[in-house]
């Protein structure tokens, strides 16, 4: 089973905080096996209550929490895009949403940096009117 964007984002946030699966589960008051299933993509769409617990336990920034919530309800977001957004802290949740809805042609890996730059140009054009 391929990992979900949500699962990858959750795992990388946990690892960045230096927490084991069991530590995160204990801090969040959630079964560690459930956290594992979320990270591996075996389980999807956690409840809002579960998401809130995970976000608090991870001490996630608002941006990270917003992105995690978005990924939880939008399973079609590519894992590569989620990884890119985690690495590039300048990408806003709104930019992620726009990039997630873009169609990519061919079999080559999408160039997310270029995609985000194009989105920013489009948003800038809108603001200038």
From TrEMBL:
Start and end of every HTH cro/C1-type domain?
10-68
InterPro entries in UniProt: Cro/C1-type_HTH, Lambda_DNA-bd_dom_sf
Q: Which residue spans traverse the membrane?
A: none
Tell me one GO molecular function of this protein.
DNA binding
Q: Which domain of life is it from?
A: Bacteria
What protein name is recorded for this chain?
Answer: Helix-turn-helix domain-containing protein
Which SUPFAM superfamilies does this entry report, sorted A to Z? lambda repressor-like DNA-binding domains (SSF47413)
